[in-house]
Amino acid sequence: xxxxxxxxxxxxxxxxxxxxxxxxxxxxxxxxxxxxxxxxxxxxxxxxxxxxxxxxxxxxxxxxxxxxxxxxxxxxxxxxxxxxxxxxxxxxxxxxxxxxxxxxxxxxxxxxxxxxxxxxxxxxxxxxxxxxxxxxxxxxxxxxxxxxxxxxxxxxxxxxxxxxxxxxxxxxxxxxxxxxxxxxxxxxxxxxxxxxxxxxxxxxxxxxxxxxxxxxxxxxxxxxxxxxxxxxxxxxxxxxxxxxxxxxxxxxxxxxx
Length: 257
What we know:
Layout: E1 6-10, E2 16-24, E3 27-34, H1 37-52, H2 69-81, E4 89-91, E5 95-101, E6 104-109, H3 113-118, E7 121-124, E8 127-132, E9 135-138, E10 155-157, E11 170-172, E12 179-184, E13 187-195, E14 199-205, H4 208-224, H5 240-249
Antiparallel strand pairs: 1-2, 2-3, 4-5, 5-6, 7-8, 8-9, 10-11, 12-13, 13-14
Helix pairs in contact: 1-2
């Protein structure tokens, strides 16, 4: 007879394994799969104890728990906030935290709760991604930050906390590809540049929008040669006619003719 909370199963090759689960506040919660029955039972016991304890997320110790850290967070959040998420989310008053470990977590606005409850965050080095419709999407893109943007130059976290993704804490300095803000002769200008066997400067412009259009025009010329594909900037603040007029007026360096 299987131990409490344990359900024997077999893999396709016939190898046995053990699923663990428990019921809390009328909800049946899966705790994971284990290679040994005793480990599955220990995870069940961990979940029962946590649901009745006052343990906090900072109390997790991987040597003391068979239960995974993600499940630990999920159960504590359910215990404290009466809402269950399969992802390691803990609700606060006006925001929520998404945990990687007891000391590593990211803060998000409550408006993003549904998205991150349904989409798991994956970390690769210093980059964060979510799987969306079968594609890996850079987390920064959700906040209007381009994939190759540089922190401090193209965007910044206002309170200097790079784990705080609440909207009020993110300032997008430059939303365009190939554009960077700089100073020339004491004046703030916007440099447009593009990669062609290294970085080629297209020119310096008074506004980021004009620089973005200059980048687009240079990219169009280069793509006609079939050398490579370039992402295009969408300048939301301009009408189609305003965009076309500026596009026509911009003169590119000879190498782009």
